[in-house]
Amino acid sequence: MTEAPIRAGGVRALWAGNPHSVVQRGLIAARSSSWIVVLSGFFEPVFYLASMGIGLGSIIGDVETSSGAQVSYAAFIAPALLAVSAMNGAIYDSTWNVFFKLNYGKLYEGMLATSLGPLDVALGEIMYALLRGLLYATGFMIIMQILGLNLAWTAILAIPAVLLIAFGFASLGMAVTSYMKTFQHMDWINFVLLPMFLFSATLYPISVYPEWIQHVIMAFPLWHGVELVRGLTTGILMPDMWWHVLYFVVMIGIGLVFTTKRLRALFLD
């Protein structure tokens, strides 16, 4: 019996140019899964919008955004919930699903035994997570349009912005998941996501906090996503929005590098 050669050096050791095969495998496997679980991630932000944006919003009235504009409370939290929806969709697939495939399904060992490289697997899984984020975001955007919460034509640009947000969370989420060994470790995902959801200027302006807390919140990736989407849906475009885009570009790069190196260290080296 001959042993399979260990890949070493060069881009070809990491990349075969075939991540769509990983996406195709995920779509085929999804046919037998419960679509109720998938849809539940879409309805969560819708319920928040209905209960807080419409219900509580009728009492609060208008809210001032970070740019100084006055918008209704529903129009204030709707873009934030859109960013949260994309984050949740991407995180679920890039953490829990990846954790099972990595530690129990042993799927990546089989994938990397083929011509696929670790970068193919990483990009394929992240692209599959993006499909879920896109599904949530598109559905929620339609609801926003029906309720008249998209205040400018630039709201259509929120879709690619949401994909950028989902890409950032999916790439970094997969990188972090590759270091987790037990289901108890996965509790840290919710421990991080919940504070981000509550404090990233999603439900109220960041100006309500003391200045030092504001700087802490501004380090959260979700805050950058919320500010980016909110600016697009309200039509308040500012040069600072490019910093939000750059934040996620760097986040994507870090996530891809760490995920690729981790998969190679686990299964190839």
Explain what this protein looks like in three dimensions.
The chain is built from 10 helices and 2 strands, in the order ααββαααααααα. A hairpin with a 5-residue loop joins β1 (62-64) and β2. The model is unreliable at 1-6 (pLDDT under 50). The protein has helices at 20-30, 35-60, 73-105, 107-112, 118-146, 158-177, 187-199, 211-217, 221-234, 241-267; strands spanning 62-64, 70-72. With 269 residues, the chain is an all-alpha fold. Strands 1-2 form a two-stranded antiparallel sheet.
Features of this protein?
single chain, 269 residues, mainly alpha, 10 helices, 69% helix, 2% strand
Task: Output the strand order for the largest sheet.
Answer: 1-2
Mean pLDDT across residues: 83
**Measured on Cα atoms, how large is the radius of gyration?**
20 Å
Shape: elongated
What ranges have pLDDT less than 50 throughout 5 or more consecutive residues? 1-6
Number of helices: 10
End-to-end separation in angstroms reads 20 Å
- Give the number of DSSP strands: 2
InterPro entries: ABC2_TM (IPR013525), ABC2_TM_bact-type (IPR047817), ABC_2_transport (IPR000412), Nod_factor_ABC_transporter (IPR051784)
Pfam families: ABC2_membrane (PF01061)
Family: Belongs to the ABC-2 integral membrane protein family.
Protein name: Transport permease protein
